[in-house]
Here is the input.
Amino acid sequence: MPTPFEPGTMMPERYDLIVKGGTVATPSGIAPADVAVTAGRIAAIGALDGAAAAEVFDAGGLHVLPGAIDTQVHFREPGHEYKEDLATGTAAAALGGIAAVFEMPNTSPSTLSAEALDDKLARAKGRAWVDHAFFMGAAAENAAELARLELLPGCCGVKIFMGSSTGSLLVEDDETLLEVLKSGRRRVAVHAEDEDRLRERLEIARQGAAVAFHPEWRDEETARLATERLMALARRAGRRVHVLHVTTAEEIPLLAANKDLATVEVTPQHLTLAAPECYDRLGTRAQMNPPIRAARHREALWRAVAQGVVDVIGSDHAPHSLEEKAKPYPTSPSGMPGVQTLLPLLMDHVNAGRLTLERLVDLTSAGPARIYGIAGKGRIAVGYDADLSIVDLQAKREITADWLASKCGWSPFEGRRVTGWPVATVIRGRVVMREAELLGDPAGAPVRFWETLAPERADLRP
Here is the structure.
């Protein structure tokens, strides 16, 4: 019986690009193959003649993965461009092997309207190195309009902050949360922390005056309560939800019991770091929301990854300047950069035996495409966008400040040695990064979604 990529099975054509000699991760498995691209889309997979292409990328000794999609980044534009902007944030993404990003609404002003979304899309045009989409923020003031706003081109969905956020983005009470959940049909991304409990426990942070108290203030119960409330309200509303940056062992059984309704995202930070060591070593640079917790929670997250409870890994890239992070706790802001280090960290976990390569692909490309209804991305398959993350699984590198493109200029993983490194990023058939160098001009485009392409026929989504 012929293999999927048997030599001679492809009809000779003229291609724009052939990625040749790599080990390719396709829906049929991971195996040696060449990938041909025409007009930005994958045209053939198999044993191909390099002479049939205008350009050949030698991927010998490398793995060719579907273009990774980071579903949770904060690029701070507009309003806080001194920390990050769409140009520097997407440059960091491309250098890290990321082909597309979903950007969060807590900018200044917040993304709460069609005008604010259009402004972000206009700012990204000609400046973004990778493909992109933007979340519409949920608030009491726009709850009745969300069913319309979520279907705008360039919108990846609705984001709810149940715990502390900026401006009017906080949706803390059940009545408003239920109204938001009933408005629209796309999957809603949720930051689940219980605001009442955060306020009740704030004195713990103030009195402790040390960042090690961060996971005590924002404790396990703060997360569990919010997730429990969210599950009950989402079921009442009949709305699918995607719970972001899950951090606790206590949330996993809740989410596993509601997989018909809820999908789950975790971050590389919560899979890699643990308290108290990270706070002793990094201080406020380890501060994020929800917090890095004790090792028992990290191990519970890894079990959830292995058992299929986790659907996506996103970076929650949230840069702040070093001057801001140097402020005394709790006045120091929460958040850390991560879009550029997502793939190196996960490949290092693959090499350590904590993660299979197949699972990495599902968590960073196929999973995001499936959950958010992305059109034409998320797999290496004929007809799909030619988005490729080309990586060297055996390369040993150190994460250093001079490699980082984020405007904030630091990473909690500086000095960490990893095995596995991004070699090239291909977006719609165009090599935008090779060997830590950005190539050409930024030409990222809005990501397409089934619901926004044909909202009246969203039931036909694959």
